[in-house]
Amino acid sequence: MDVRRVESETELEDALTVRRAVFIEEQGVPEHRELDGKDETATNFVAYDGDQPVGAARLREYDDAAGKVERVAVLEARRGEGLGREIMDAVEAAAKAAGCEAVVLHAQVPVVEFYDRLGYEVMSEEFEDAGIPHREMRKSL
Prior knowledge:
about 140 residues, Aminopeptidase, about 35% strand, alpha+beta, single chain
């Protein structure tokens, strides 16, 4: 598998294809919430298996010392293969290279344990976003 920082419109469309499949089609997130207009100012990532996009994520500025990881997605048929960890490794490396001391994310409650295994700490009570329960998590880099 190859996780790339998005450098072209084609790669961005591949990342959005994965996100549409996971968030809009599978989870029922409204399209206007998923495609929020923030991708143009974010650093996007797409994971490929050969020439097939299978995962995605994006990184945005959160505050002076932290980046915010968003839209982490792996196609349903490819979950459990370690792709999420590889995507997170690439995003965290980019955040660190950009001078971030930490990263934060809003984890869907069913995957809090996944992020916990990657060294993230729960920072909030449960809250709802797009009808899905989440917890804010943070990791020092």
